[in-house]
């Protein structure tokens, strides 16, 4: 996917001041931008997961600690953590302890120079269409380090989430990945841009999944109106 001639416009701080579910949907189609060695790299967000303080899968439900403080800070604060020793990118939402995980994306630039820089961040080769297909792949491809950004605001000159006018047409809503059954695994708080389902961490539309049971397909406007299902 080649970008337009101009970089995506940085999202204003108030954009992030939404409930986690609505922010998770609104972030689909936006672009995580990162300046690396003087070049702007980017991953268009195609998959997100919403988390709330009062549901068991959220890190914030385990209590307030220095490492988790970003989740309790104003909406739009960067929360990064290690997943199996590799970085993951989240952003705080409206309400203390609430956040959205940036789950996967597709490369905003696919020219050889950009892909080479992204593979340098990964430390290994990866097909262009899968270079951001996972939360740690996305963060590594953009050369993001936990200690550099956790608890900070986005910087429009170095690292930010931007808007280039793209909006998904259909959204797939399903359950989050890697959540233990006793930690509210049943909650359908994962959202995928249907046009990029095959590039998601795990394609929600498979032979073993059934629409209406394992996932739902919504218009963008319908997805923005999804309500929480926890107590």
What do these coordinates show?
The chain has a domain at 9-167: Methylpurine-DNA glycosylase (MPG) (3-methyladenine DNA Glycosylase, Chain A, Roll). The relative contact order is 0.21. The model has no long low-confidence stretch (mean pLDDT 94). Helices cover 14% and strands 27% of the residues. Strands 1, 2, 3, 4, 5, 6, 7, 8, 9 and 10 form a ten-stranded antiparallel beta sheet that branches. It has helices spanning 20-26, 112-122, 135-141, 146-149, 220-223, and strands spanning 9-10, 31-36, 39-51, 78-83, 86-92, 99-107, 159-163, 170-174, 190-193, 215-219. The chain contains five helices and ten strands. By secondary structure, it is α+β, with helices and mostly antiparallel strands. The termini are far apart. Its EC number is 3.2.2.-. This is Putative 3-methyladenine DNA glycosylase.
